[in-house]
Amino acid sequence: MWMPETEDVGGGMQEIAGTVCSAVEHQVPQPSGFFAARGQDVWLFRLREDGSQRTVNCRFEGPMNAMLSPGDHIWVLGSTSGGVLLATRIRDDSGALLGQAACFVATAVFEDASAPEVNSLRVFRDVVLARSNLGGVLIRLYWHLGPWAARLVANRRRCKPILRSGLRIASRIADRISQRYSDCAGTHQQKGENHGQHRRTE
To answer: What is the spatial distance between Cα 34 and Cα 112, in angstroms, rounded to a whole number?
Structure first.
């Protein structure tokens, strides 16, 4: 099922659609290396990409709202590294969120994966950073360093108030940037639709 030698599907962040060929869930019980996550849920699955016979190996770390099963049609946002698509977000055809990769440090600081500040930083990652090659590099770097940093701050309660204050400021800035990015993207999409309608009426 798992074939990590598969060739890359492309550089930077991308969202692909396809049908799940096979999937398996497991948990990393303890760090296997300096930067490994502790107790992190991991999904390994193969996706047959729409419109081709190519299968893509995918890895997702974080809680899932639903189980992945062969035959499911899903959309996966992620970045390719070493022949594996590292997923940050998985959704179904209706747009419902099936899973979103963990935000390691913010979750450790706020001790709540669903805290508003954590969600704001996730949105910034998926809406802004994930749309550029540089952002993809930063996300991959964070995946390597984040679990280690989260373990570093997890039990340092005296530091957490300071870190929470800093992350609250960062999340507010991230909110504004994400909103502006979404507004600009919506404006460009509307202009494109209007242009297409204008050409059809000529």
So the answer is: 24
